[in-house]
Amino acid sequence: MTVQKPIETPLNIKAIRGEFPILQRQINSRPLVYLDSAASAQKPEFVIESVAGCYRASYANVHRGLHTLANETTEAFEAAREDVRRFLNAKSTDEIVFTRGSTEAINLVAHSFCRTLEPGDEIVISRMEHHSNIVPWMLEAEARELTVKWADVTETGELDYEQLGGLIGERTRLIALAHMSNVLGTVNDIARIRAIPGAGDIPLLLDGSQSAVHLPVDVQALDCDFFVFTGHKLYGPSGAGALYAKGDWLDRLPPYMGGGEMIADVFEDRVTFADVPHKFEAGTPAIADAIGLGAAIRWLERHDRVAIMEHERALMDRAMTGLSEIDGLKVIGTAQDKGAIISFHMDDAHPHDLAQILDKYGVAVRAGHHCAQPLMRRMGVSATARASFAVYNTIEEADAFVDALKKAREFLI
Ligand code: ALA
Fold first, then answer.
1. Using one digit for the tens of pLDDT, what is the confidence trace for 175-209?
2. Three-state DSSP class for residue 71
3. Is there an atom of ligand 1 within 6 Å of 233 CB?
4. Whose CA is closest to atom 6 on ligand 1?
């Protein structure tokens, strides 16, 4: 076991861990070391109870009924919208749409925004995007004769800001980028992107799936037009996420899905729409999950966001130091500003084999292309293994991960 100095943090990590029942599990007769939170984080009792409590004690459909349960549930659902607003520092709850997650939120913007464009208009994305911030734009580009332009990524896994600047032109209608890469951990410099000549006035969508978890986020300070995130990575339930759309964007855009709840009146020859944000929330939403997302936010707000970020980065640094001692191990993504995600490969060992061997030691990591094939190609790999850290991880777990990898190396190489 590598012996290093303990990490100092004002957070009571032991108490935090105690709130996550699943972290008590043993995997293959060893304590679970859960390093796959970038894929989906575990849930504290407070969130579990909020979802269960909704079904147990106060559940009905929202915005429709006039009975007590319908009113209580609508109140809890709208309170969760206020939780999202406060969490992102949006100006108004009218800027917040509940979605199933980031993917649905980006599809919503892609569909509605691109309907306002002309053939030949351009969307700028980057090679470090998750497929959820690639495919929706490609689908729209094909349907509407738009062009998708690709910002490049450097060897260390940073955005090539200069090349990105060269993509901005008269036909650029939107820039859509990850705020923090799910593979590299790179945190993109949004102020720098805004400062690129011509880019400051172009609508900007940020995929906050990772950043909302790992960084304090303020959509007004970021000056983005759209920001999306998902609940299941934020210690909340799967099936609920949110879209932030600045100011009057939601008023200006046509709806995404049609159905109940999003209408004002339906006639045989025309439809008028509900006020925002309801215009974008067709059908019965994921009621209990949205309420659980609000609970996850309130749970997270009990802790200092900067302290969480520093704790996670200290764990990452500790693991990175350990990994640097392993022959043939290469970390993909070494940006200056990097959140607590480490993607790596080891000589010729297949990342899937690495993940399976780590699992034998109770260590859960993800392996594969991480829904980012253009990035894999750019970095010259077909897959990586990925360890991602969360607030509940400990220094002992960072060490256990490195030790398990050393054993995997002895076994595989
Ligand atoms: N988007 C999730 C990940 O990066 C699933 O693993």
1. 999 999 999 999 999 999 999 999 999 999 999 99
2. helix
3. no
4. 39
